[in-house]
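Hello again, I could really use a second opinion on something today. I owe you a coffee for this, so here goes:
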Amino acid sequence: MDREKVIREEQKCPICKEGIITVITKSEYYSYHSARAFNKVKRIPVHHPEKIEIENKCPNCGASKQDIKDALEHGKQIPHEEKLKRSKKAGMPTVIETTIEKKDDKWDEDD
């Protein structure tokens, strides 16, 4: 049976990259639960996912604990306009065309 490992470290704020915050990371682990029925005992493994806890909010930018936790778990989100610029630069189409044509207020599909 593995036990969780608790790691306490100080990191730079993922939002402003300047302030120092304290992060507690609890690693994922399995524990066992026993189920009893009809005078039989069965051990069932239970998975506990990794947890991230933030001790304090950023002293520099004032970001809340929840904002910092979201930024650490999901990374920094790229704005939609930036994604469009990157796709245009890569040569990908930004408008998707359809093969269905409109004729006399009715849609005809290519069969």
